[in-house]
């Protein structure tokens, strides 16, 4: 494999203005122009939304909209409460603990990397060393590596910039491919060393740059809350690729901030992000935890027993959820994930959707099966809602298309105006969690929802199909005979077809273009026969 080039990919990370500082004159002007355009369109284009002949379609779309926007508003209110009332109180008490001199015994960084760009590795390791220096805690970097290329780069960086620090670099070369194997080997090495139960272990990827103070803001939280077992932090993206991909990722990270703060109000999160999360070592040293990470699998009715390729962060999260562990989101601890997009941006986008959606679907069902007794009811319902929303998101545009066939293109134009206004309202919440006001967010948000729902429908019947371009283009292969593989392939197509046809039939029924035969109709048919 060709070694990555040595271009200067990353600027030093910095924080950005938050709160009302980002609502500058230009941003408000852009919002005003956007709204004015929508108003002009409403005036000039005949509004067919309230056409009496398809009022039932409008009512269904409206009902779905009220439900989905109400759910979004619920998250927004919860996020506001957590970010502005609950967490500031936690931060104040945690800072007092830190200022009084409390420090953990040892700080461990579990980092995995695979042929990363030299400049990215330089900044990642330097950010770790800076955190060790500023915290005044002895640190160990546990490097799960698959190639001497990364080992030599990171060892040289530690020698140059960590010579005056109490830091140790331990390299664990994996003998089995895959990130999960690398993490498992590192955790087993930790078990053989002097890692203590209350030591803190930072799980992070080799392309994640810590902003200054990120770890110092997390550490005292574990002293403040003795039940806290894991926390994950804020993220921003540094994208080296097409501009539209960068805006899409920034929109997703804004969504993530809003959702994470809403979930954290219940003392749980829906993922312990693999880019960077901090754990108390007590659970990590257990064989059950290590084996779950190494060999997490699912027994599926169609695909049989198969291992998970990616999604190690979902495995750690599921373990913590299963053990009723307290988890937290830390909004004022920041890190930067570096995305280098090489080749087709659209291909990479779809691959990311398949990986993220697949990981969510593979873990969501078993997490729901734990029931609300294992977690706060709100978190359990969020998991259920993830399964429902993939269908409701497709229901609305299908209804709109059917109405277009009935009324004509003017209805579709009216629907587009409805999307433009409704997604702007949702984006107003996202602007508060983004670096700046981006007027592309409303349409990126809609396309994100539409594509994500479609990918989930595709993936739900192909859970064993996994591909991870970020880690040496790993793919999963189904075991079994050729005949069985052919059967599985066509059965997945069949199930997808039935599911999509069911969605269309239900939509046709609600649009009153057709009716679902009743029991009485079948009875009359048999009697007449």
Question: What is the arithmetic mean of pLDDT?
Answer: 86
Class inferred from helices and paired strands:
alpha/beta
Roughly what fraction of the amino acids lie in strands? 5-15%
Largest sheet: 8 strands, mixed
Taking the alpha carbons of the first and last residues, their distance comes to 71 Å
How many strands? 12
In helices, the fraction of residues equals: 55-70%
Regions with little confidence, pLDDT below 50 for 5+ residues: 1-15
Supply the number of helical segments.
16
Give the SSE string: HHEHEHEHEEHEHEHHEEHEHHHHEEHH
Q: Tell me the Rg in angstroms.
A: 25 Å
Shape: globular
How do the strands line up in the largest sheet? 3-2-1-4-7-6-10-5
SSE arrangement:
Layout lengths: L24 H20 L10 H45 L7 E7 L4 H18 L3 E7 L2 H14 L5 E7 L5 H14 L7 E6 L2 E3 L3 H11 L3 E13 L2 H22 L11 E5 H4 L2 H9 L1 E4 L3 E4 L4 H11 L3 E15 L4 H26 L6 H31 L1 H23 L9 H19 L7 E2 L5 E2 L6 H29 L8 H10 L1
Parallel strand pairs: 1-2, 1-4, 2-3, 6-10
Antiparallel strand pairs: 4-7, 5-10, 6-7, 8-9, 11-12
Helix pairs in contact: 1-13, 2-6, 2-7, 2-12, 3-4, 5-9, 7-14, 10-11, 11-12, 11-14, 12-13, 12-14, 12-15, 13-14
